[in-house]
Every structure is written in structure tokens, then in C-alpha cells.
Q: What sequence folds into this?
């Protein structure tokens, strides 16, 4: 993961913003089109007024599904927010501030920590203990503190509001292009590569990279996908299977995420390559022979190579 030109503050503490800050507020779990609009509005105002472009968000405990399955890893979330021009990101654990009253949230965090001059949010933003604060209350409390509030219009895709819920549904139904359009970037994972059963290498002749989903994260529907993977700074077309491997595993086996990268050889165990999903190809099913399974894997990889040649004009 590239170095971020953004300070990450993992607790409620003063922010280095001598002239004050413009703060985007939200969980920003997908950094989707709607989130990007809120964050970009804060960054634009910061540049116009000489303020510090900042974000206030929070971190949920590992495995928590309070907001639904996680769409991005924490590292991805940080990278996508930083790419929009944010220089300060405050991200305390949810438990550290969830009991604050709306009044305390404004005074202790926006005024006390950020020295906020302007804040930005979507029209569905809530804050304070038990989500007691809404946008009208935010405007009232901030006006008393001399803070401007801008409510950013919700982004839309195909006539409906973009939301993390819609993105999760699209991925769970295999509608990858829809999910990617709403995210504003390809859905991707960067989980650590682990050892698999070695079946791809020993029996199929198609060694795979295993990046299995941690608890609490969103898992797309089982199936075969056209993907591309970034290893050592280079992108390779690839084919990824998500599922219980019914041909080679016992019934009831855990779901795995395995990627075949034609033409690549190398030890990537322990690394965190970025795997982008671009198209759902077909469901996972049990084959009558290992050869039939091997043929599907190689065919999917060939289709991936052709897909990216058509998409990008070339492959790396």
C-alpha cells in the first residue's frame, strides 16, 4: 500500500489545524459516490478558505457488523479517502464516542479537536448517543458555535440514491459492474495471502493465490469472476473463484477465495496484493472430473485476459 499523505488520528485528540478545518462527517464504509461527494466538498472548501481538509469517521471492532458487512478493509478506506485530498483523518473506536450527546459531539470534537469552521455531511447524517442528533440539530448546534454546515446532495445511480446497502446487494447478487459504478472504483480486496490445500498446483496445474475473507466483511456471491491482481506493482489479468470448492472439497467445507494468475510464478504468501473484481462469469458447481474443473479455470483466465485487452487496449 502506498504511503498516504494524510495523518491518521486513531483517538479523540486535538488536530493540527492552525487556521481551522473543513470536516466531512460519516462512516464512509464504501467511500462510494455519495461519500466522495461529501469528502470532496470539504476538500474544495478547505482549499478555497485556507482550512485543513479533514474527515471524522470511526472504527468498528473487528468482526462487528453494526453497519453491515465491511465493503473495504481499513487500509483501502484510508487510501481512498486520502486520494481525495484529505490531510487529517480522525478515526476513534466507536466505543470511545458513541455515548456523547449531540451537544458534546459538536463542542468536544468539532470545536475542541478540529477547530472546525465548516462541516459537510449527507442529508441522512445522524450523530450523538443513540443517533439522537440529525441534520437540523447539527445546523442549530453548529450555528451557535460559528460553524457553517453544508448538506451535500445524495448521489444517484440509475435513478436511486447510492448507498452501501445497495452496493452490498449488488455484490451479493453478482452485479459487479453496478457495484463498481456506485463505488466509483472497482470493488477490491487486499487480504493477506494464505496457504491453501495445494490442489491447484498438485492436481490441476493451475496454482492459485488464496485470500480468504475475514469475519465481519462482505463476501460477494459464490461464483467465478473475471478479476485483475496487482502483485509487486504490476497488474495481471486473473480469474477468481469464491465458494466451497465442491469438486475437490468435502461437503460443508468453508468458502475460499482463490485466484489463478496465468503466467505468474512467485511466492506471495504473507503479502497483500490488491485483487479487483470486474465481472461475474458463472456460478460454482461440482464437476464430474478434475480435468473439467481445470478447463473452466483456464477458460476463465483466457476470458479475463481478453476482457482486459478489450478494456484497456493492452495487458501488463
A:
Amino acid at each position: 500500500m502506498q504511503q498516504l499523505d494524510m495523518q491518521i488520528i486513531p483517538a479523540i485528540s486535538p488536530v493540527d489545524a492552525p487556521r481551522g478545518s473543513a470536516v466531512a462527517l460519516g462512516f464512509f464504509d464504501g467511500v462510494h459516490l455519495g461519500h466522495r461527494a461529501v469528502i470532496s466538498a470539504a476538500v474544495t472548501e478547505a482549499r478555497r478558505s485556507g482550512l485543513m481538509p479533514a474527515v471524522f469517521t470511526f472504527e468498528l471492532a473487528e468482526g462487528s457488523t453494526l453497519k453491515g458487512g465491511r465493503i473495504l478493509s481499513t487500509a483501502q478506506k484510508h487510501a481512498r479517502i486520502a486520494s481525495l485530498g484529505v490531510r487529517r483523518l480522525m478515526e476513534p473506536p466507536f466505543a470511545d464516542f458513541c455515548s456523547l450527546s449531540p451537544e458534546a459531539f459538536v463542542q468536544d470534537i468539532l470545536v475542541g479537536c478540529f477547530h472546525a469552521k465548516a462541516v459537510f455531511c449527507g442529508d441522512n447524517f445522524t450523530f450523538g448517543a443513540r443517533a439522537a442528533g440529525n441534520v437540523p440539530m447539527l445546523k442549530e448546534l453548529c450555528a451557535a458555535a460559528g460553524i457553517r454546515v453544508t448538506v451535500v446532495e445524495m448521489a444517484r445511480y440509475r435513478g436511486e440514491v447510492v448507498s452501501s446497502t445497495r452496493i452490498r446487494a449488488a455484490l451479493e447478487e453478482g452485479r459487479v459492474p453496478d457495484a463498481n459504478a456506485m463505488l466509483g472504483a472497482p470493488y477490491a480486496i487486499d487480504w493477506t495471502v494464505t496457504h491453501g490445500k495445494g490442489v491447484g498446483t498438485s492436481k490441476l496445474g493451475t496454482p492459485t493465490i488464496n485470500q480468504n475473507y475475514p469475519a465481519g466483511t462482505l463476501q460477494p456471491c459464490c461464483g467465478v469472476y473475471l478479476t485483475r491482481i496487482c502483485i509487486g506493482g504490476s497488474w495481471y489479468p486473473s480469474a477468481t473463484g469464491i465458494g466451497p470448492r465442491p469438486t475437490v472439497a468435502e461437503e460443508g467445507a468453508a468458502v475460499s477465495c482463490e485466484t489463478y494468475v496465468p503466467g505468474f510464478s512467485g511466492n506471495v504468501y504473507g503479502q497483500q496484493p490488491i485483487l479487483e473484481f470486474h465481472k461475474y462469469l458463472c456460478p460454482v458447481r461440482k464437476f464430474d472430473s478434475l480435468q473439467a474443473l481445470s478447463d473452466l479455470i483456464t477458460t476463465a483466465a483466457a476470458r479475463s485476459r481478453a476482457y482486459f485487452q478489450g478494456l484497456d487496449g493492452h495487458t501488463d
Q: What stands out?
A: The chain is about 30% helix and 20% strand.
